[in-house]
Amino acid sequence: MRNFLTLLVKEEKAVFSSPIAYAIVAGAQVPPPVATGKIIRSHTLLRHFRAGGRTVVTWIRHGHTCVLSARDVPLQAMVGLAAWKDGAGLTF
To answer: Which residues, in sequence order, are CB contacts of 77 under 8 Å at separation 6+?
Structure first.
């Protein structure tokens, strides 16, 4: 069993009608599911798949698996959020 931190983000003036969950998994990297799509954005390998009606995007940051998931949010929007680096202020 692993510990993880999950943030559920839904702002009053949100662009999307669905909340977006962001989780950071503690411990060693979690292997991705076998059937994932791959996208490289901002020099970061992002993997995506569908599960339980949600779009899921995963990537590795500082050796930890990060996960975004949401319903009714376009994949490209999720990829943009996952690849965001705060003007190079975030490192991977």
So the answer is: 15, 16
